[in-house]
Write a structure and sequence with these properties.
Largest sheet: 8 strands, parallel, barrel
Number of helices: 35
Strand order of the largest sheet: 1-2-3-4-5-6-7-8
CATH architecture of one domain: Alpha-Beta Barrel
Radius of gyration: 38 Å
Shape: elongated
Strand content: 15-25%
CATH topology of one domain: TIM Barrel
């Protein structure tokens, strides 16, 4: 072929030659670069790309015995191990790795240091746990199952989860993590979206671990058949998620005895993984599934290509079997060296060239236990799925209209689920044993209720049993609302997919049970979605989210940034108080920002420890009745226009007649001791005489008159003054004569009381003690004649609140207990708060005894009100009479803190709450509520905007709106005697309260850092 003229020119030919040479050079350069780069990054497994000089050096020095030892991982699960005996085993066989399971960080660190120090070449310490996280450690939280974690929407929580696992591994010297295989779950579904979801989370976790130079092992590749003859599309599809994980650099793959069901050829598993997955990392086999680790099992694994074998027994057999394989040339020295070198390279990559002892202080400092606890709650909460809510049943509202029946079906009851339900509302619960009970017959009792919860507890029922449950639901009254809560496999939902309300929970751990119950009542919001299609009614990504939070959430302090260890100081304070005889027991409830972070019961009902205090025990709350009953009722009636603060008592009583003939005006000296910084300018008028005691205290002396006249008697006092305790009315009911009778056999007893109820003796004072009607009437006559001061003077008084309660009863034409139940208690879901609990059929054994009254009633006061004035009024009074537990009180006062709203219902206006709880200009208190002062039983750090009250029996409630805090303390400190003041002198209530503020301060300071 003849070249064109221009190309035949010498100059042109020169250019062409130069261009050709340069082009060839560039091609050769890139070829060389790619070749070198390919060599450098030949393996996706990161540790295989490291320089191997150390591994080669160590390998050259090792004996055959030391090499064999490197192939063995000892799994040691005993938390009561004899470290010395394990040391001798490690010294003898020089294991390549070890899997430890201890119950504390201290033991993990101590054991790891002890074992690693025995060896020239440190062991790979492994973590093999259902969640890839050490749930067995006491200090750390327990996580929900991976089935729930995998389906959490978004990656942020999964990333945090991987980070806390990584931190644990780094700071405990654990380099090998057998992270549960997400991919193994993919094999059970044909949903590509689900595959992508699970795979993305798997890769997220693996990458975080390996970016920190930790070996991540794909645990659960048991669905791989390693069958070269299987070339089906189904098998190729099954390989895809594994291929993606391997391509991302997984360090190890785990196999177990399920892969030995058929006879495997030489290096069959190893070759299969290299050929189909391009995997050259560590192949780790587990022989622990067999009863005994015999020669055949060991032989098959190593001949199939395993690099490491996990054993928990028979170390001698394992070692000698490998030795025999070498001697008989079934495994060559070249193969042995290849396995050992790979192991050594992995050790070099994770930093095990030389072992550096772990320090417990460093480990404790760097493993953020608070974050782990918080994350465990977040992950579990985010996974629970409200799959359907067509009736808008969840969260439950209008509790007054609901009769709830909760039935658990399975092999075991859902105790935590049922208890959590009871925190919100009185429910009837039943357990149906799926293996013993007739399900259809057992469900018949549910027909009496209008709201039914059917909770399936990880059931493995036969299809006909599921159909029986669904048929029962279908046959229920159309007005009956049913929610199915499935604790377990998603596939169970297909039997109930046509129902209107379905909740999916992926396991039945205590935390999962508690959060599922909270979802039903609106303690938490629904967040989860279905990860794949179940049927036409339940589709991928289906789920109702962002349901309203309308009630308290029960959680851990860490969710609000507080430290559980700091909060546990409360336990120490209480135990010390019980030991020193301040009270037999108590209940403590603490909620912050609408979340209950502390809800515990301590001790017993009496000092003989015969009845352990539980959350549902009732206490006589004494003067807390003033705010939990009388004041709240007043607030509601104020809003309804039935009571004005300026109203005088005479407005509410028809019989205001008083016999003035025998009443004389008296002049007295009124003395009050005050702290200077609490002195109100209104208090110290010019005519007052004051004496300074020291730099902080003064005495106020005033001469005043006390009288009963047509212009100055109890009926002329305003409601406002009664609530402020500045009515000037004598502070006690005129009941002394009824108490100071001669003895139980004397005439005065018979005169005033009867031992049996009758129309003539209708007012119950105590067991077998009823006040005669004519004396009840005379008590009111005497009350009308109580003296009233001529000036408004603060004097804390039971009479004030008794008179307010009487005004309430008069305005409503019914008693205050009914008014409170109808307007507050029942719809709030409060199960225990009531007057006269014995009449409400609450067992006496469920009520803490208040006092052994050897003076007046001569009996143990238990279930009958302790306060004498309230007792004389039949147990329903404005100053005392309520019995309840801490949980009920916590809910009631959370409603106030919420601005009057709770459970989707508005009970009071926020303006009313602000008015009554604010410090009034006339004195030190709110309207009915007490306020902080140096004399009060309250934490020194409590906000001055706090409001609450204390009770004589050893109780208190404080609400701090600035810190969104509700604090309840209930005890029976006066049992057996009212002379016991240790609860006050030891300042236990104040100290417990202060712990919360200390925890908040600690969290704030930590946040600044």
């Amino acid at each position: 072929m003849k070249l064109p003229e221009r190309i035949r020119k010498p100059k042109t030919i020169l250019y062409i030659a130069l261009f050709t040479i340069i082009s060839i050079g560039i091609i050769l350069f890139f070829f060389s670069f790619n070749k070198n780069g390919s060599n450098k990054n030949k393996y996706a497994v990161p540790f295989l790309n490291e320089k191997s000089q150390w591994a080669d050096s160590m390998l050259a020095k090792m004996t055959i015995e030391e090499k064999i030892g490197q192939l063995i991982i000892l799994q040691f699960d005993s938390t009561n191990a004899d470290i010395d005996s394990v040391k001798s085993l490690i010294t003898k066989f020089a294991f390549g790795g070890m899997i430890l399971k201890e119950d504390s960080l201290y033991k993990i660190i101590n054991a790891t240091n002890s074992y690693q120090n025995e060896l020239k070449i440190p062991m790979l310490m492994g973590l093999n746990s259902p969640n890839g996280f050490p749930d067995f450690l006491n200090e750390l939280a327990k996580f929900s199952s991976n089935k729930g974690i995998e389906t959490v929407e978004g990656d942020s929580l999964i990333k945090k989860y991987a980070e806390v696992i990584s931190d644990y591994c780094i700071y405990t010297g654990t380099m090998l993590n057998f992270y549960p295989s997400f991919a193994s779950l993919v094999d059970n579904h044909n949903d590509s979206n689900y595959t992508k979801l699970i795979l993305s989370k798997s890769l997220k976790c693996m990458n975080i671990l390996q970016n920190n130079h930790l070996l991540s092992c794909l645990n659960g590749a048991y669905n791989l058949t390693f069958n070269e003859k299987d070339t089906s599309l189904a098998n190729k599809s099954k390989l895809l998620p594994y291929k993606a994980i391997v391509d991302s650099g997984i360090s190890a793959i785990y196999i177990d005895t399920t892969h030995l069901k058929s006879k495997l050829s030489k290096n069959q598993i190893k070759i299969y993984l290299e050929k189909h997955l391009n995997f050259y990392g560590l192949l780790i086999a587990n022989a622990n599934n067999t009863k005994t680790i015999n020669q055949d099992v060991v032989k098959q694994f190593f001949l199939a290509g395993a690099d490491l074998l996990i054993i928990n027994k028979d170390a001698e057999t394992t070692f000698k079997t490998i030795e025999k394989l070498l001697k008989t040339n079934q495994i060559s020295n070249e193969e042995l060296n290849g396995k050992v070198k790979k192991i050594l390279m992995a050790k070099y990559w994770v930093g095990l060239k030389k072992y550096e002892a772990l320090q417990l202080a460093d480990t404790s400092k760097n493993i953020n236990i608070q974050d782990i606890r918080k994350l465990s709650v977040q992950l579990c909460e985010s996974s629970i799925t409200l799959a359907k809510n067509s009736d808008t049943l969840v969260p439950f509202t209008r509790l007054m209209q609901k009769q709830i029946y909760a039935v658990s079906i399975g092999n075991a009851n859902l105790d935590y689920f049922n208890e959590q339900l009871h925190y919100y509302y009185r429910i009837t619960s039943k357990f149906i044993n799926s293996t013993k009970d007739d399900i259809t017959k057992s469900l018949e009792a549910a027909n009496k209720f209008n709201t039914i919860i059917i909770a399936l507890n990880k059931t493995d029922l036969l299809p006909e049993q599921y159909h029986k449950i669904s048929e029962f639901i279908k046959s229920a009254n159309p007005k009956t609302k049913v929610v199915v809560v499935n604790f377990g496999s998603l596939q169970t939902l297909k039997y109930f997919s046509f129902f209107n309300t379905l909740v999916q929970v992926y396991d039945n751990t205590p935390l999962s049970q508690q959060l599922a119950a909270q979802l039903l009542f609106g303690g938490i919001s629904a967040k989860g979605i279905l990860p794949y299609d179940i049927d036409n009614n339940l589709k991928n990504k289906q789920g109702i989210t962002n349901t309203p939070v309308i009630r308290l959430k029960y959680t851990i302090p860490e969710e609000l940034g507080l430290n559980s260890n700091t909060m546990s100081k409360i336990d120490s304070i209480v135990f010390d108080g019980i030991m020193r005889g301040a009270m037999p027991g108590c209940q403590i409830f603490i909620a912050k920002e609408g979340k209950v972070i502390y809800n515990k019961s301590f001790g017993s009902t009496t000092y003989d420890k015969s009845g352990k205090i539980k959350w549902d025990n009732l206490y006589d709350i004494a003067s807390l009745t003033k705010i939990a009953g009388t004041t709240i009722a007043t607030m509601k009636m104020y809003e309804q226009g039935k009571i004005k603060l300026s109203d005088k008592l005479e407005k509410f009583f028809k019989n205001t007649k008083i016999d003035y003939s025998k009443i004389k005006i008296e002049k007295i000296s009124y003395i009050d001791t005050l702290y200077k910084d609490e002195v109100d300018t209104v208090k110290l008028k010019s005519e007052y005489k004051t004496i300074s005691i020291n730099d902080s205290m003064i005495v106020v002396i005033d001469s005043i008159t006390t009288s009963v006249t047509p212009k100055n008697n109890i009926f002329k006092v305003q409601i406002r003054d009664l609530l402020l305790h500045q009515s000037g009315i004598s502070p006690s009911l005129p009941i002394l004569k009824f108490i100071k009778y001669k003895d139980s056999l004397g005439n005065n007893y018979v005169k005033y009381y009867s031992s049996v109820w009758s129309k003539e003796s209708p007012t119950k004072i105590a067991d077998n003690m009823y006040l005669r009607k004519n004396y009840f009437d005379s008590l009111w006559s005497d009350t009308k004649q109580l003296r009233v001061y001529s000036k408004s003077i603060y004097q804390y008084s039971d009479v004030n609140m008794i008179l307010v309660q009487m005004a309430i009863d008069s305005a409503n034409h019914s008693s205050i207990d009914k008014y409170l139940a109808n307007n507050f208690y029942t719809s709030l879901g409060l199960q225990f708060i009531c007057y006269k609990p014995l009449e409400h059929k609450i067992p006496r054994s469920n009520i803490a005894p208040t006092e052994i009254d050897a003076y007046w009633r001569k009996q143990v006061i238990q279930g009958n009100v302790h306060d004498p004035s309230a007792a004389m009024l039949g147990g329903v009074a404005g100053n005392a009479g309520l019995f309840t537990n801490a949980n009920d009180l916590g809910i009631l006062f959370q409603m106030l803190l919420n601005g009057g709203k709770y459970g989707g219902i508005s009970y009071l206006n926020s303006s009313t709450i602000n008015l009554f709880t604010s410090k009034q200009s006339e004195g030190y208190r709110g309207l009915g509520f007490d306020k902080p002062s140096k004399n009060n039983i309250i934490a020194r750090s409590a906000s001055m905007h706090s409001y609450g009250h204390t009770g004589f029996t050893g109780t208190c409630v404080w609400v701090d709106p600035d810190n969104k805090l509700v604090y309840v303390f209930l005890s029976n400190r006066i049992y057996p005697s009212v002379k016991n003041w240790k609860l006050n002198t030891l300042q236990i209530r104040q100290k417990v309260h202060q712990v919360v503020y200390d925890a908040m301060k600690e969290a704030k300071e930590k946040g600044k850092k």
